[in-house]
Amino acid sequence: MDSNMNGLAKSNGCEISRDGFFESEEEELQGQAEAWKCTFAFAESLAVKCVVLLGIPDMIAREGSRATLSLGEIVAKLPTESPDAACLFRIMRFLVAKGIFRASKSAREGGAFETRYGLTPASKWLVKGRELSMAPMLLMQNDETTLAPWHHFNECVLEGGVAFQKANGAEIWSYASDHPDFNNLFNNAMACNARIVMKGILSKYQGFHSLNSLVDVGGGTGTAVAEIVRAYPFITGINYDLPHVVATASSLSGVQHVGGDMFETVPTGDAIFMKWIMHDWNDEDCIKILKNCRKAIPDTGKVIIVDVVLDADQGDNTDKKRKKAVDPIVGTVFDLVMVAHSSGGKERSEKEWKRILLEGGFSRYNIIEIPALQSVIEAFPR
């Protein structure tokens, strides 16, 4: 036998390693398949970004939620005279295989068949024209600026530091302040998430009834607090964020926009609302924010935090996980988003939340599940 064939065996004409590194041929092939998936995991999100930028989900949706369009009909709606239809076909074929679109065959005149494309539950969330759309979040997370920090993870492990700063020369908040286009992209993404999560909150959380005033700390352009005030018109809403953020906010009924720094002070109110804020910061910073919130509310007040609560045994198929609307593994993905975009932020388990709440002046809390990735953490002073 050729010396190069030592440790190899033939299986269906393929050479399979027999050096003992893999326990079986099945394990070797399954591992190879998973390694290929990892290698090209980026392909799906960037292909989806392409069709969202082209407006293809919107084209189909305008014809109806169950409508279909042929490739030719889609191409005819694109803004250039001679688009590359073959390129688009290959992208659509891939996204059909991934379940982003559905494909069906339809007979044409003369007996020929054509493929027609329709929306799936996933692509229905990518229609930009709808109030509840994840398209702005997808576009922000797949922007070159927000993708670049992920290429610096190995440096963060070896050297420490902030991935976003390594990639872009500044931390994300300073960068957004100096780059209006990115700031707009970021704010649109946060606003789209606010609308989605607020629907879940307002359908399940009953803790707004007793409030006369509510301060949304880190409220962006005010989307979330506006939804709360719309549902509870007796509440006076204050949208509190950095001055450059509230400067872009539109006038909202029942909402006052206030610029400031939550690390210095927080406006007073019956309760403080913080949606997707605490996960941006390390434990020390979160405790500082919570202490400022404690000063801003009466002894009968509360803090309403909307954030991910990681399960302690992430990955186990427990009853608690099965009750979540969104696969809880997405929480660990967002934890990596915090590595990429924040300076010490992270997603937390209940045990971790309990510790920072206690040190921030809140000794009692409830966790309320809502139909979203996040949960509501309702915390009360000592």
From TrEMBL:
Swiss-Prot/TrEMBL keywords: Methyltransferase, S-adenosyl-L-methionine, Transferase
S-adenosyl-L-methionine is among the record's keywords: yes
Pfam families: Dimerisation, Methyltransf_2
GO MF term set: O-methyltransferase activity; protein dimerization activity
Coiled-coil region: none
GO BP terms: methylation
Domain O-methyltransferase dimerisation: 36-128
Gene3D superfamilies named in the record: Vaccinia Virus protein VP39, Winged helix-like DNA-binding domain superfamily/Winged helix DNA-binding domain
Active-site feature positions: H279 (proton acceptor)
O-methyltransferase C-terminal domain mapped to chain residues: 150-363
Keyword Methyltransferase: yes
Superkingdom of the organism of origin: Eukaryota
Similarity field: Belongs to the class I-like SAM-binding methyltransferase superfamily. Cation-independent O-methyltransferase family.
Name assigned to this protein: O-methyltransferase
Originating organism: Pinus radiata (Monterey pine)
Taxonomy of the source species: Eukaryota, Viridiplantae, Streptophyta, Embryophyta, Tracheophyta
Gene this protein is translated from: omt
